[in-house]
Amino acid sequence: MAAGGESKLQLLRSHIRAFPDFPKKGIVFRDICPILKDAAVLKAVIDLFEEHVRNSHQHVDLIVGLDARGFLFGPLLAQRLGVGFVLVRKKGKLPGPTVSVAYDLEYGKAEAEMQVDAVAPGQKVLLIDDLLATGGTLKAACDLMRKMQAEVLGCMVVIELKELNGIDKVQPHNVFSLVQY
Question: Which residue did the predictor score with more confidence, 2 or 25?
């Protein structure tokens, strides 16, 4: 990464707040609100994602954002790349015909869905979210793309919590993370 990229990463790191014992004891919550509040930092995040995509993927058809914070970064990146953006939402949040996949959470089950016409078979997609923790939601989104017969080029997150090994669940897909804890 160029020197400019390294300074952008330092700027990004300085704008991620840690809240110990939130939402429960033993959890350190990584807050991205300061990134969103500062236009220069938000631009740096999108610059870093754009650099990665342009260096790693010759052709991308769509950016796929995960509910809900993937919706914050995904459209900005898609606009920069000149491609479309589509949503993966929690079950019951989208109108019209949808396709869904069920997945396990630490505390139960959930479903991720998208509109049936959001992705065409063979389209090359990149998935984006704010955080990779245990990997359940990102894996479900990858499974949903496979069900839609799209080609997952990779996944991108602002923050990866390495100790939770979420990347293992998402394999064989590559995950590009800007910051790791």
Answer: 25
